[in-house]
Amino acid sequence: MEDYLRDGVVLLRGVFESWIATLNQGADQNAAHPSDRALRHAGEGGGGRFLEDFCCWRHIPQYEDFIRKSPMAEIAAALMQSHTAQFFHDHYLDKEAQSGVPTPWHQDMPYYCVEGLQTVSFWIPLDPREERVSLRCLAGSHKWPREIRPTSWSTLESFYADDEHFMDLPDVEQGVANGDYAIKAWGVTPGDAVAFNFKTAHGANANSVSTINRTLSFRWIGDDACYIQRPGRTSPDFPDINQSTGERLREDWFPTIWSS
Fold this sequence. Notes:
Layout lengths: L1 H6 L1 E4 L7 H13 L6 E3 L8 E5 L6 H9 L2 H9 L3 E12 L7 E4 L7 E2 L3 E7 L10 E3 L33 H7 L4 E2 L8 E4 L5 E3 L8 E9 L4 E2 L28 E4 L1
Antiparallel strand pairs: 1-10, 2-3, 3-4, 4-12, 4-14, 5-11, 6-13, 7-10, 7-12, 8-9, 8-11
Helix pairs in contact: 2-3
C-alpha cells in the first residue's frame, strides 16, 4: 500500500493464479467474438495485429465471476485506501507474435469520464512476459500537476478539440537518462498483476517475441472518484450515461462490489 501510494504502481506476484484458467476462457470468447467497441491497430505496412476490446463483462460470464467473486475488489479498496471499490470497466488487449505495434506512453485518466485520486487498474498477463515486452510505468507520475494531453494512438492527433488544460507528455527517455524519472517494469507470469493508478504514465514496447501477448485489465474507482464531463467522447465512451460532473458513477452501470 505504501509503495502504491508513493509510486502509483506495484507488482502483486501470483495474486490471481487460481483465476487464470477462468480468465483464459473469457479471453478466448472475447477474441472470437469482439464487441462493437473493439479497436484494431496495425503496425507499419499493415502487419502486426493489435486488438483491444472494452466493457465486455456483462456478456462474458468468466469476467463477471472474476469481478464479483475473486479478491480483486477487496485488494483494490486496500490499495486505494478506500471504503468502497466500484467497478469501472474491463479491457482486453491482444498483440500477435512479432507485432510491430507499441503501446505509446500515456495516462489512462484523461481518456475516461472519471476523476479522483482513488483509482486502480489491474494489468493481468495471460501469457508469460519478458521484462522488455512487459508493461512499463513511470514511478510517481500520478502526482504530476496536470493530466497528459490524450491523443489518438492511430493518428497521434489530440483526442479532444478543447485540450488546453492538459500538459504535453514530457520526454520520457531523456528524463530517464537524466535520472528525473524511474521506469518500473517486471518480467511476469500468468497469475501476477501490476496494479497502477489511472494517472500513472505507462506504455509498452512492440511484441518483438515469437509468442502471442494477451492481457486483461480490470479498472476500479474508490470513494473520491466521480463523473467528469470531458470535452468530447471518452474511451471507452458512454454516450447515454446521463450524468453531471461531480456525481458518483451510476450503480446500475458501475456496481460497487466491495465496501467496508
